[in-house]
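Justification of resources, computational component.

The compute hours requested in this renewal are based largely on the per-chain cost of generating structure records like the one below. Each record pairs the submitted sequence with a full structure-token output. That output is archived, and it is also reused by downstream analysis tasks.
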Amino acid sequence: MARSHAVGAAHSRLKELCAIVSDVAGVTFAPRHAPSYRELAQGIRRGDVGIAWMPPLPAIELDEEGVAAPLALPWRQEGTSYYSALVTREGRAKGVADLQGKRVAWVDKESAAGYLVPRMHLASIGMDPRTFFSQETFARSHLGVVDAVASGAADVGATFCTLDPATRRVVTAGWKAADGSRIRDLEVIATLGPIPNDAIVASIRVPASIRSSLTRWLLAPDDRSRDLLAELFQVRSFRVASSAHFDELRHLVRAARSRGHDS
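The structure output for this chain reads:
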């Protein structure tokens, strides 16, 4: 896993989880802490890493390159996807086109909902994300983005949300508390996605029989494994990952690349 997520007590938790995984698979797994997701992906490409927790975009890239495949997707908020939301203070814009020339607050450059997906969306509709906004700042967290917009430090911000599949109503979001109440009074201009949840991926160098064993374990973990997974990845259950699950995000990436503005 990426080093930024493996500090303090997480180091010993990952070591314990590797011991459980080793028993499940019948081969030895040891913890590896990469300095970034980019280096983690490179470890899979080199054959140094067998299993990794990856954000959706790097997971898709590894899958398309044929060097790794998702074993399972975290099941959070009754789903395996979430969305990016572009938010403003009330009455400041009616659509994405109204955001041109505004000041934007992003989370950080590795955030799917808080940076990558909104920029790819702009590129896919013919807008250059490098010049669309008059000013860009990085708030380093979703709450930081929300606060920047609410305070007037930014005109628009990109954060996450989940939607009820039937009503399309926002269930959880960067501007909502855990109980669903609003912590900041913001207006949603657009929701973009769906964005697949982060994935547990395995190198294709890992034998198929071992990958199957690991998938079965992720779908029905024992109590201790469930506790460790919750602490490390904020998830207590997983679902099978199908390649079709990533299709909409793949299409967005390709559309952005075809315009030449995917970063």
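The first strand starts at residue 51 and ends at 54. The chain has a mean pLDDT of 88.
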